[in-house]
Amino acid sequence: MSVTKTRAFALKTQDYRDTSLLATFYTRDYGKIRGIVKGIREAPVRFSSTVEPFSLNEILFYKRKKGGDLHLITQIDLEDLFTEVRGDLERLSYASYFIDLLNELVETEESNPAIFDLLHDALLFLSTKASCKRTARIFEVKLFESLGLMPEIKACVMCQAAHPTPAYFNVSLGGIACKNCSESGGLPVSKGTLNFLEHVRRSPFNELRPVKVSCEVGEELEKILRRFVDFHLSNKLRSVTFMEKMELV
Ligand SMILES: [Zn+2]
C-alpha cells in the first residue's frame, strides 16, 4: 500500500460496521475513489471534517494495489463546507444534484482534474447570487463535454448538413437532425439554444458568470438537457425527484 494525499469532494457516505464510514470522494488526482474511514463515528474529533456531501477536503489515504477498489482513508481535513449553499434549500438541492449526476456518470478511478475544477467552480457559483438553473445548465454541458458525451450540435447527425434550420434534437441519434432526417420524437431546438450550448462548451466557467439567457432558451435548454441526462442514467436521481417534489425544477 502506498500513502497518498489529495483534495477531494465528498460524494456519498454510508455507515460501515459499528464505528466506520464508507465514503465516496471525487479527488483531483485520482477521480472517483471509495474508501473506509475507520473509527470516525466513534472518535469524530480525530477528524476535522464530518464528510458532509459536497464538502471539499484534503484526504490522506492508503491506496490498495490489490484486493478491490476500497482504500483506507486515515485523515480528512475540511477545506470548504460551502456554508452559503447549505443555508438555502434551492442551492443545497442543486449542489446535491451536481454530485449525484457526477457520481453516476464518472467511472471509478479515472483521473480528470477538469471535472474536479468544474464541480468546484459550480459550487462557488452557487455560493453567490448566481441563478441555480443557469449554473446547472453550464455544469451539465461542461460535464458532458469533459466525459466525451456532448451531443453533436453543429450539423445534422444523419446527412451532415451544417447548421440545419429548423433543427430537431434527438437523444438516441446523439445530436441534432435536419427536418428531412429527423425521426418522430425529436425536440425542435432554436438557434439561440444551440448558440448558447456552443458558447458554454467553449468558454471557461468564470467567463460565463454574466451570461444571461431568455426564458424561452432557458426552458428549451432544460428540456433538452433533462432528456439527455435521463438517456445516460439507468435510474432517476434521488435529488431530481426531490427537486421535482419541491417544485425547484
Ligand atoms: Zn439531415
Task: Give a brief outline of the structure.
The protein has helices at 83-86, 89-105, 113-126, 132-146, 191-202, 215-232, 238-245, and strands spanning 2-16, 20-27, 31-37, 56-63, 70-80, 167-170, 175-177, 187-189.
Word description of this protein:
The chain is of the alpha+beta class. It has helices spanning 83-86, 89-105, 113-126, 132-146, 191-202, 215-232, 238-245; strands at 2-16, 20-27, 31-37, 56-63, 70-80, 167-170, 175-177, 187-189. The strands form two sheets. The protein has a five-stranded mixed β-barrel with strand order 1-2-3-5-4. The mean pLDDT is 92. Bound molecules: zinc ion. Zinc ion binds next to loops. Zinc ion is lined by residues 156, 158-159, 161, 177-178, 180-181.
Radius of gyration: 20 Å
Q: What name goes with the CATH superfamily of the largest domain? A: Recombination protein O, C-terminal domain
Computed structural class? alpha+beta
- What is the CATH third-level topology name of the largest domain? de novo design (two linked rop proteins)
Major sheet size, sense and barrel closure: 5 strands, mixed, barrel
Mean pLDDT: 92
Strand content: 15-25%
Write down the domain tally. 2
Percent range of helical residues: 25-40%
Q: What is the global morphology?
A: elongated
Q: What distance lies between the first and last C-alpha atoms, to the nearest angstrom? A: 45 Å
Ligand kinds = zinc ion
**Regarding CATH, which class of the largest domain?**
Mainly Alpha
Uncertain ranges: none
Strand order of the largest sheet: 1-2-3-5-4
